[in-house]
């Protein structure tokens, strides 16, 4: 049994029991927009402002600082740069691996989730791209319009070997769940209408987190590719649901 404390670079629900204490660092990348290199192709010049090649060194440093860590990507990965547009125009055949996944696969990601821009090139392209990832993806609120079931794996519970503060190995069940704004149905209507529906963010998380707990997740990492919001009256199907998600304990 594990008492859980965390150094957060993502949002976390923590679980507590009495026997052991584990510190876990959760590292997150987001909005990479296919910027793998530190080069601005629009200006034809090197840049220090972006590029996974630079972030990778920070990830390695952060990992080396602690005993326990996981790495996740929070979406908006396959769109937003000349590389992304080139790959979309070229297309992905069976067996092709998108260059962004050739890069991310070397960094030992634990899990990924989707952003709104993942849908910009259509569902077929998205599925072909995701097939190149050597790590699983979760999304709980995009629903197949035909089957009425989640189009993607809604959540994942992963047994993770960690070392507690006494130096003893423990197995921690970590749950991961992701959601996207329902507004993608308008933003990408041409790609999504009649193919998927998108459920409310807060209600989706309220549904699944207790289920994850019942299946043994000692902590649940909830990844939402949405902006923050002020504590105003909740609206169903809101884009900015962070405040209300933070109030959900999952118990």
Automatic annotation (TrEMBL):
Transmembrane segments: none
GO cellular component, one term: outer membrane-bounded periplasmic space
Organism of origin: Escherichia coli
Signal sequence, renumbered to the chain: 1-19
InterPro entries: 5'-Nucleotdase_CS, 5_nucleotidase/apyrase, Calcineurin-like_PHP, Metallo-depent_PP-like
UniProt keyword list: Hydrolase, Signal
EC number(s) from the headed UniProt entry: 3.1.3.6
Calcineurin-like phosphoesterase domain segment(s): 24-197
Protein name in UniProt: Bifunctional 2',3'-cyclic nucleotide 2'-phosphodiesterase/3'-nucleotidase periplasmic protein
Family membership: Belongs to the 5'-nucleotidase family.
Any one GO biological process: nucleotide catabolic process
Molecular function per GO: 3'-nucleotidase activity; metal ion binding; nucleotide binding
């Amino acid at each position: 049994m594990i008492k859980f404390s965390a150094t957060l670079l993502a949002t976390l629900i923590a679980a507590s029991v009495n026997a052991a204490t584990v510190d876990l660092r959760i590292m997150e990348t987001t909005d990479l927009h296919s910027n793998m290199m530190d080069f601005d192709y629009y200006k034809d010049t090197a840049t220090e402002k972006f590029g996974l090649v630079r972030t990778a060194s920070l990830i390695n440093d952060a990992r080396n600082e602690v005993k326990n860590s996981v790495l996740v990507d929070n979406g908006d990965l396959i769109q937003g740069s000349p590389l992304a547009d080139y790959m979309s125009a070229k297309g992905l055949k069976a067996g092709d691996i998108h260059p962004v996944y050739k890069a991310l696969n070397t960094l030992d990601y634990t899990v990924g989730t989707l952003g709104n821009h993942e849908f910009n090139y259509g569902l077929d392209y998205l599925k072909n791209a995701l097939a190149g990832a050597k790590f699983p993806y979760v999304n709980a609120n995009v629903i197949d319009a035909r089957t009425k079931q989640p189009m993607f794996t809604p959540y994942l519970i992963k047994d993770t070997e960690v070392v507690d503060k006494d130096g003893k190995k423990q197995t921690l069940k970590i749950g991961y769940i992701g959601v996207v704004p329902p507004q993608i149905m308008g933003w990408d209507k041409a790609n999504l209408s009649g193919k998927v529906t998108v459920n409310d963010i807060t209600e989706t998380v309220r549904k699944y987190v207790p289920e994850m707990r019942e299946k043994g997740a000692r902590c649940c990492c909830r990844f939402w590719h949405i902006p923050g919001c002020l504590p105003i009256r909740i609206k169903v199907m809101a884009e900015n649901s962070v405040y209300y998600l933070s109030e959900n304990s999952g118990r």
